[in-house]
Amino acid sequence: MRIAYISTCQPRECGLATFNENLVHAVDQHISFSEHGSFIVALNDSDDKRQYAYDDSVKFVISQERLSDYQSAAAFINSNGVDMCCIQHEFGIYGGRNGVYLLGLTRLLKVPYTVIFHTVLAQPNPIQLSIVKRLADRAAAVVVMTKKAVQLLRAVYDISTNKIKAIPHGVPDFDKPDAVTLKTNLGLPAEKILLTFGLIGPSKGLETTIKSLPAICKRHPDVRYVILGKTHPGILRSFGEDYRTSLMQLAEKLGVADHLIFISEFVHERKLHSYLSACDLYITPYPNEAQITSGTLSYAIGAGAAVVSTPYWHAAELLKNNRGKLFDFNNDQQLSSIINELLSNPAELKSLKRNAYKYGLSLRWPKIGKQYAQLFKTHIKTEEKPSLPEQALMQVTSSFSRTLTWKTSV
């Protein structure tokens, strides 16, 4: 069974790239990637096809804003004996208004595809609504990661329940290490560590946690709040480090600058798992509810971290049954109260971590990969398929006068 995965791809620093890599490896345990000739079609955010040093699993590269690339990619996939396409979907990674160029690819595909919606909007604009409905209409299956997303696809987008499959966000299959040792290895102070991870921007609500620090530090002067992650590339291009600077200035104004640690690094999974295992509390202070999926929240639960979060959609669902604590949007006083209570009650803190870790076992990638493999097998193309050699595939591509080529080593 040959699968073409369409996604951003590492080394591009992108959550979908990490997700897709994990999915490929997890499905590989059930449907061999190399033996069946599966491959990745990668999305670049510039016209430079060599922008990222992809490995040999990437056989095709699409420049985000070049419509012709999407048409050529469809021809490439159709000519290569593919049984199933797996498309990672976020509006921002595809070209055209709201990523409409992706429809140019799916419209030309002659093989079935599964689309994984990482974002499902409750109030889409007309173009977003049309894109999701058209992608779902042509898809063999639609995957989302929460019950709320299933509800929205049915109620807002009028997508048939029979086509929708809910599969949770996968988490790394790592052992749980010793927190004290990890703090030393990561260069973190021995004090109590609060942690937030992810690409930094105003949509993350980090100022709420900083505003909560004075009340927390008054009772727990050994607290340090670690913000781990680079500034979001889009924010960086438009505004530089203004947001990060504003957070530093806020901490100075509140007298808690010494309790704030910035680590501007995009860490990969094993190191992230170490940070999550080392922290005392993981905080996601997002300022509004409209976040249907949070990979970082899933990772925190998978690592057995004690989570305190605002009740955005994914958190409200994932932190049920005492797997974490919720506080109201933008409510720094409530946040400080919850954190103070947990840091003063080690038994309750330990209970949260135990509940999260136990539930996280069901989210490990080997189990999630099995669900995807079964889904793909259910919807594969069954008729006889052409399988062209590499040289012929290059001719197919060039006949469309596109700049994309088969990946070659240099």
Describe the protein's architecture and organization.
The chain is of the alpha/beta class and 410 residues long. The chain folds into two domains: 3-170 and 364-399, Rossmann fold, CATH 3.40.50; 179-362, Rossmann fold (3-Layer(aba) Sandwich), CATH 3.40.50. It is built from 16 helices and 13 strands. Strands 3-2-1-4-5-6-7 form a seven-stranded parallel β-sheet, sandwiched between helices. It has a six-stranded parallel β-sheet with strand order 10-9-8-11-12-13, sandwiched between helices. GO terms for molecular function: glycosyltransferase activity.
Quickly list its features.
410 residues, alpha/beta, Rossmann fold, 7-stranded parallel sheet, 16 helices, transferase
The N- and C-terminal alpha carbons lie at a distance of: 29 Å
Radius of gyration: 22 Å
> Which topology of the largest domain does CATH recognise?
Rossmann fold
Order of helices and strands: EHEEHEHEHEHEHEHEHHEHEHEHEHHHH
Q: Which percent range describes the beta-strand content?
A: 5-15%
Strand order of the largest sheet: 3-2-1-4-5-6-7
Number of domains: 2
The CATH top-level class label of the largest domain: Alpha Beta
Shape, please? globular
Give the mean pLDDT: 91
- The total of beta strands comes to 13
Total number of helical segments?
16
Structural class by SSE content? alpha/beta
Second rung of CATH, namely the architecture of the largest domain = 3-Layer(aba) Sandwich
Q: What helical percentage do the residues reach?
A: 40-55%
What low-confidence regions span 5 or more consecutive residues with pLDDT below 50? 383-410
